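User: For documentation purposes, I need each entry recorded in a consistent format: the amino acid sequence on its own, followed directly by the corresponding structure tokens. There are two entries in this batch. Please keep commentary to a minimum and don't merge the entries.

Assistant: Recorded as requested. Entry 1:
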Amino acid sequence: PKSPEEVSVIQKRLIRAGYRKDIHVNVFYGAKVLVPVALCVFATVTGVYEYGALFVYAIAIGLGFLLPDFWLGNRISNRQLNIRLGLPDALDLLVICIEAGLSLDQALMRTADELAMSHPELSDEFGLVNLEQRAGRPRTEAWKHLAERTEIDIIRSLVAMIVQADQFGTSIAKGLRVHSDTLRTQRRQHAEEQAAKTTVKLVF
């Protein structure tokens, strides 16, 4: 890394992908060194360099340097997609727990436990919110950190709704139910949009 700012940017990307330990930054930068070397060795062993050594080794070094970034971007996208798909179910569980008499913090803890197998990414993020609140961080700040970690628009709108409900004393359960219905409607509309595009794609 060239500067602490660069480390901070990579660390944020790794956190979005679910890798939070400091050693993961070192592993990532190590991969940006080792993968180009491995590709150069592969090009040498297989004899591909005979078609043009300078061109082949340049491609191997460039591709090897960029592959860890592509892999990390793919991991972030997959994790964000899993969170998007699992959020309506999580909100339904939160509503059930709150209407059963639990507080928002207790409902969040119970929901994180219940989602550990079906939606581990959401369970992990909700568990972090619980840990931050146990450590003494205010509820609104812990939820805002969730939005910053995930970088997902629907999580940001959920956090904004919870913060407003906490500030003005409105019903959190009712807001969560409306938000869950909205997410399901958006998901159905997205599926219909993708289905409508298939006819054009099939032409090609």
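Entry 2:
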Amino acid sequence: MRKTIGQLGALLGVLLLPHSVHAAPPFYDNWETFGLSHGLPSEKVFCIRATKDDVWAGTDHGLARFTDGRWRTYTTADGLAHLAVLSIAEDPETKDLWIGTMGGLNRFSAGRFDTFTQFNSGLANDIVYGVTFLRGEVWAATAAGLSRYNAAQHRWTLYDETNTPMHEVWCYSVTSSQKKVYVAVWGGGLLEYDVAQNKWKDYRDPDGEMEMDLFRDDGLLIDVVAGAACDSADRVWVASYFGLSVYDGRRWRTYMDHDSPLAGNFINFVATRAEVAWMATDNGLSASDRENWWTYRRDPETGTGVVDWTPANGPPERFTSQTIFPHNYLLGVSFQGDQIWVATEKGAARGTRGQVRRATTE
């Protein structure tokens, strides 16, 4: 029988473990859930994006904005291109919001929505799975290729199999680092674009097998890629529905749930903060710096949280929390200061650092 054995102390950057010398894991203990009763238009939250002052949630029934403790919903009546919002990015300079929907790309600026579609702009397709911003340009991953828009010059550039190493045109997500753009291509691996050199490079699964990884750490795990993110050490974390791949510029490492602490192989989204990557899976939330792992899950029987910590040098430990996100199927992760926000099948949740309890069995 599991029980808690005392509080370990407040987590203000240092976890108080008298008998442990491991680095402090990123514990988030206090969780608050947001659903229909709190103002969300739907509990099916596809994506979440925290900015300095607001938190934006993309749902299947509109765009929700969390400001000063309250939610406000925007729909097609307000100018949103489509009720299903799949991705959100912020222009770091103008603070304009760019929103990918099932019916086009929106720019939200000064309280107004502008809509870009394949009929009134250079958008490759109206189904916009991913959006990112780099050096004054917005990049949109669509169901029929990648679009790049320079808003200042009103110039569009389209990328597909004719001018890139893109083997498929179904671009499932797009993200950027300081110098490069990464495109997850469904069935086509990962594309890398070096902005300064204006050069494309593709990463594919070397063995070409869809159902298995024949040779461990030989390259990209599989060509069916769901997303990617670059951390502060310039490592690229690649999410797929079969596991995780990490590339440090020299070699690849792959992780699956049967040979690592990864919460689940079905990874919907990956985000990075400093050198730690956060994976939103169908079976909980995992965080890793490649050596240490932390996994959060909701206990379906009690509704409480279970946090498994697997340090690089030491035995695994388990902790419990009284609160946790509302569902183990996660679709998005974002950060606002010391808080973490997650998108799930049953609403959004906000986690803050608090206190944890070590769990034991008896």
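Summary note for entry 2:
Residues 173 and 276 are 20 Å apart (CA to CA).
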